[in-house]
C-alpha cells in the first residue's frame, strides 16, 4: 500500500488508492506512477515532476506541492478550491529537463471543472534543479 493513502487528504480530494489509475494520464496505477513521488522518490525529469504535481493537485497533497516548489518562489501554503475538480492533463511540449539538464520547461493544458463548468489552464512551467532534485520555479500562462 502506498503511504499516500494513509496521509490526510484535503476535504474535497477524490479517493485515490495505490491501485487507482494515475491522475496524470499515464497508463499506470497511482502507486507505481505519481504516488511513488508523493511518497518520497525523486522525479527523474521535469515532465515527471509536472505530472506528479498535477496529480498532487488532484489528491490535494499540499505538502508535496510545497516540497517540490523552489524556495525562492514557494508560497507559504497551498489552498485548494473546493468547487474545482481536476479531470485531465495534456502535455503539449517539453524542453530540456532530463538527467543531463539543469533547467527545463513543460507546456501543458490541465482540464478541470469549476462548480461543474468545464474549463482549462494552459501554462508553460519552468523547472530547475535545486539541491540535486527537480523543482517547480515559475510559470507563464499561455492563454
In short:
With about 140 residues, the protein is an alpha+beta fold.
Can you walk through the features of this model?
By secondary structure, this protein is an alpha+beta fold. The chain contains 3 helices and 4 strands. It has helices at residues 34-38, 46-59, 62-67; strands spanning 84-96, 103-114, 117-130, 133-141. It has a 4-stranded antiparallel sheet with strand order 1-2-3-4, covered by helices on one side. A hairpin with a 2-residue loop joins strand 2 (103-114) and strand 3.
Form type: globular
Rounded to an integer in angstroms, the radius of gyration calculated over CA atoms is 14 Å
How large is the count of helical segments?
Answer: 3
Q: How much helix is in the residues?
A: 10-25%
The total beta strand count reads 4
SSE inventory with pairings:
Elements: H1 34-38, H2 46-59, H3 62-67, E1 84-96, E2 103-114, E3 117-130, E4 133-141
Antiparallel strand pairs: 1-2, 2-3, 3-4
Features:
17% helix; 143 residues; single chain; globular; 4 strands; alpha+beta; 4-stranded antiparallel β-sheet; disordered N terminus
